[in-house]
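Molecular record:
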Amino acid sequence: MKPHQGISSSGRVAIALFTGLAAGVIIGMLFAPKSGKEIRNNLVETGERLMEMGKESVSDVVEKTKQTVESGKEKIEELKTAVR
């Protein structure tokens, strides 16, 4: 099985976007002049926000995929009817 099999290109873009965003936020926080406790709290809050954004993106990709599958099924039925 290929490593990206089953993941759409928009899904891969979303994963890359959130991975880069998370890495940037973490690096920024580590170099910020804050106490360890503040940094840990910020990391937790940011992690929760990123998880929520990721869940929303996955839901969008799933919904678009379902719509595409339904559209494909309808077109197949139209072609079957036209061939008969």
Summary: The radius of gyration is 20 Å.
